[in-house]
Specification:
The complex is a heterodimer of chains A (218) and B (336). Chain A has helices at residues 14-44, 52-79, 89-111, 116-125, 127-144, 148-154, 156-162, 165-179, 185-199, 202-212. Chain A has 218 residues and is an all-alpha fold. Chain A is built from 10 helices and no strands. The radius of gyration of chain A is 19 Å and the shape is globular. In chain B, a hairpin with a 5-residue loop joins β1 and β2. Chain B has 10 helices and 12 strands. The longest helix of chain B is centred in the first third of the chain and has 14 residues, at 19-32. The chains are: A mainly alpha (218), B alpha+beta (336).
């Protein structure tokens, strides 16, 4: 598991383990329930006469929020000295990937109606879609390698790869900003939160960046 | 009012469906339990109430009145977008930027009485009572394709009258080279005008414009209704512009002022992002929006909420034979 047991803080107590499990359940329910709601909302016409745009936005925004929550976990765990909390990172990250794939799938299926030639040109020529697609590919790489077996086998490289969550969140905000026809307040708020979450771990990020450069290979 | 059935470009549009057909169709849908708002309405309200502040005096659609008009028969190759989709998927940023916002937030807009002022380069400027105008004018149905700049489209049976004939009443002078339109500015009634965030960062009032020859073209209409009844508020009640060969944002809603002018007037989306939205905004599959292709479009037609049909976009939205001559010699890539 991706759990990092912190040794410096208060000793993890039994109730904390229970709380961590309860939180994991809450993550699964919280990430799945809106999808269920979405299904019925579309059936009921709550997303309007043509729900395609609302559907795509709902899924994309959901994925971004889950990404933010994923990044919130470890600062929260260390400030609360609650290492068990780190167990939430994997389910949150995986759910984020599920939402992002649904977001992309909804765009392919309902916006472009699987017109592959159009999909190809849109992916290449539209910068905001390209940015979103790059974020999705990164996210997929992180999701696939979150298997514990792969994590062990990848060793140090696992951390290098998973550090890409930092540029990933910026790409996602950028994609959101560019996708809007007008207005910037909402994406600006998301970007500000992302920058705040990254600033909490700036030393870690700097270390990750140094680790990536060829000079530091040892 | 005479409908010129055989003009090229009118091709599939010039068919006639009596209102009774709509009514029959609605009855059929109701019978099947698939009815539009009538059936879905109460269920919708239940879901939406959880998410909206309590505004109890809203009766969606209640204020719409039947109109007398000359009907047009729809052609089989041009299936109409169902009424509930036409009235529940709207861009009207004065009431919020989500497609469902206008239907929810605009119902309290006071559309009666409503006056429309025509001024500027005209010999006989004046203000007309729009409801009186509706009663006095021979209305006709026009079944038009509607192509949004966001690459979706509908087919809508509008009811209205020709803009050109209306403008002639005010005797445009020889200096009238453009026509400028303005939407109601009333932040008290339009939350998007009161709050910049809700209104998508747009400077209000919404303004649009046409060249005088475009405005005088018989395809350009002022619409006062759709599907046989007066316009719902979310579709631009009580009076709006419809220019079927241009992107939908040219179709300014809830108009209070028309000014004939000498210089090209500013237009809202062009002011916001000139590289993305031009003054002309003619539907053109060969000129992409910087952020998406305009070569094809998603047609919002009959069928379930997620039934999708992607179809090629036609130059001038299929009205090229009627309107292309307006732009002969112009570089349409430059004047997009």
């Amino acid at each position: 598991m991706a759990t990092i047991q912190r040794t410096g803080g208060a000793r993890p107590l039994q109730w904390r383990k229970g709380a961590a499990v309860a939180l994991q359940v809450a993550v699964h329910l919280g990430a799945a329930a809106p999808l269920l709601w979405l299904f019925f909302a579309i059936q009921q016409g709550a997303l309007g006469g043509d729900p395609v745009e609302a559907l795509i936005h709902f899924l994309g925004l959901g994925a971004l929020r889950l990404l933010m929550l994923t990044l919130l976990v470890s600062p929260l765990a260390s400030s609360l000295s609650f290492g068990q909390l780190n167990r939430l990172r994997r389910p949150l990250g995986l759910w984020c990937c599920v939402w992002a794939l649904l977001h992309f799938g909804a765009w392919l299926a309902f916006e472009l109606a699987f017109d592959w030639s159009l999909i190809a040109t849109e992916l290449v020529e539209r910068s905001y879609i390209l940015v979103g697609f790059a974020a999705l590919l990164l996210l997929l790489a992180l999701a696939v390698t979150s298997l514990p077996a792969l994590m062990r086998r990848m060793g140090r490289n696992w951390k290098k790869l998973h550090g890409f969550i930092y540029p990933l969140v910026l790409l996602a905000c950028w994609h959101f900003w560019w996708s809007l026809k007008s207005g910037w307040v909402e994406p600006a708020i998301y970007l500000a939160i992302a920058i705040f979450l990254l600033s909490l771990r700036r030393k870690k990020i700097a270390g990750w960046g140094r680790g990536l450069s060829p000079a530091s290979r040892g | 009012m005479l409908i010129k059935t055989n003009k090229p470009g009118d091709l599939s549009e010039s068919a006639v469906t009596p209102e009774s057909t709509y009514l029959k169709r609605r009855t059929l849908l109701k019978g099947l339990g698939l009815g539009g708002l009538l059936l879905v309405g109460p269920a919708r309200a239940g879901v939406l109430d959880l998410f909206s502040s309590d505004k109890d005096d809203k009766q969606p659609g209640a204020a719409r009145k039947p109109l007398d008009f000359t009907a047009q028969t729809p052609k089989p190759d041009l299936p109409l977008t169902p009424e509930n989709k036409v009235t529940n998927h709207n861009n009207f940023y004065e009431f919020g930027t989500d497609k469902t916002d206008p239907a929810r937030e605009s119902q309290s807009l006071k559309i009666e009485p409503w006056t429309l002022t025509v001024e500027g380069e005209v010999e006989k400027p004046g203000t007309v009572d729009v409801w009186q105008l509706m009663a006095d004018t021979a209305l006709e149905e026009r079944i038009y394709r509607m192509r949004c700049v966001e690459a979706w489209s509908m087919v809508i049976p509008w009811v209205g009258f020709e803009l050109g004939k209306f403008l002639q009443r005010f005797r445009p002078t020889s200096r009238a080279r453009y026509v400028a339109f303005e939407t109601l500015y009333d932040p008290g009634q339009m939350p998007g005008q009161k709050n910049r965030y809700l209104g998508g960062g747009i400077d209000y009032p919404y303004v649009e414009g046409l060249r005088i020859d475009e405005a005088m073209h018989p395809l350009a209409i002022l619409s006062v209704g759709l599907y046989g009844k007066t316009l719902p508020t979310q579709n631009g009640a009580p009076i709006r512009l419809v220019v079927p060969w241009k992107y939908g944002f040219k179709g300014i809603k809830s108009i209070v002022r028309i000014r004939l002018v000498e210089q090209m007037p500013p237009t809202t989306w062009n002011k916001l992002a000139a590289n993305e939205y031009g003054f002309y905004a003619n539907v053109n599959p060969a000129v992409d929006h910087p952020r998406w292709s305009q070569a094809s479009e998603r047609f919002i037609g009959p069928g379930g909420p997620l039934s999708v049909k992607r179809q090629p976009t036609l130059p001038f939205n299929g009205y090229g034979e009627r309107v292309a001559s307006l732009y002969s010699g112009m570089d349409l890539k430059k004047y997009y």
